[in-house]
Amino acid sequence: MKIGITGATGQLGTLVVNELKKREYNNHLVALVRSTEKAKDLEIETREFDYDNPKSLEKGLQGIDRLVFISANEIGQRARQHKNVIEAAKKSNVNWIVYTSLLKADTSSLSLAGEHLATEQELKASSIDYTILRNGWYTENYTASIPSAIKNDAFIGSAGNGKISSAARLDYAEALAVVITNDQNKGQTFELAGDNSYTLTDLAKEISKQTGKDIPYNNLSEDTYSNILSQVGLPEILAKGLASWDISASKDDLFDNNRKLSTLIGRPTTSIESSIHDVL
């Protein structure tokens, strides 16, 4: 059996490879990556895999039985790129695809939802066995801002009092490893999120508690937040995206309390307190 992992050198993909290695699947793994040179440290078989090159996709998927399909990172291009992968998987006789989608993709107001939903529909129409993991927010999406919050004595955003049920990337990586190694998960769609929710005010309070500094949460308008992100050097499309995703968070689009993620991995999801501690 061969298990292919797309984006295997990315932040999530690397963790997935490690989790599958822990389960002693080393000799069954294939890293599907744009640069095989960057994948050498993974110490598994590597193959070139370019979402924009259908020939490389078909070649990369030859002999792959199960595919961990981690969504691409080019916003606005993903529906097309993902369709390329699914078409190549059909031609290469891949038996099962496990895809990382977005929490509540069919109802979410996040701008990311449309491309994920389009991919889900392609999968369902493909005749390939599939499982959809609708991942909630990575806690790292917010904890990455801790250093600047400490430097500027404030945590900023536009999420208002929205409840966020995030989990660490490692939690989602472990879920992928659990799902892809158990045939009973075929045909299912899992809504995955952290066990406990928090607001950005709660997040700022916990940062203050652990640092001993007074770091309040300052809620900003979408435009103001986007402009600040642009001013500190983020590309405009990303700055606008981050601000708009916070607006969606304010509507509780990142909230979920079914605890399916912790059920899958057999342990509580990583707490926000622990994630903050790790950054500090």
UniProtKB/TrEMBL annotation:
EC category: oxidoreductase
Gene3D superfamilies tied to this protein: NAD(P)-binding Rossmann-like Domain, UDP-galactose 4-epimerase, domain 1
Gene Ontology molecular functions: NAD(P)H dehydrogenase (quinone) activity
Keyword Oxidoreductase applies: yes
The entry's keywords: Oxidoreductase
EC nos: 1.6.5.2
Location of the NAD(P)-binding domain: 7-157
Pfam families associated with the record: NAD_binding_10
PANTHER family to which the protein is assigned, alphabetical: NMRA-LIKE DOMAIN-CONTAINING PROTEIN, QUINONE OXIDOREDUCTASE 2
The protein's name in its UniProt record: SDR family oxidoreductase
Organism: Mariniflexile jejuense
